[in-house]
Amino acid sequence: MKTEVRFGDNQLQLTRVFDAPRDLVFGYWKEPGKLHQWFGCADTTEVACTVDFRVGGSFTCDMQIKGAGGFRYLGQYDQIVEPEKIAYHADFGPTTTRVTVEFAEMGAQTKMTLTQVGFPSEQICKMVSQGTSESFDKLDALLAAETLASQR
Question: What tens digit of pLDDT does each residue of 47-66 get?
Answer without folding.
Answer: 999 999 999 999 999 999 99
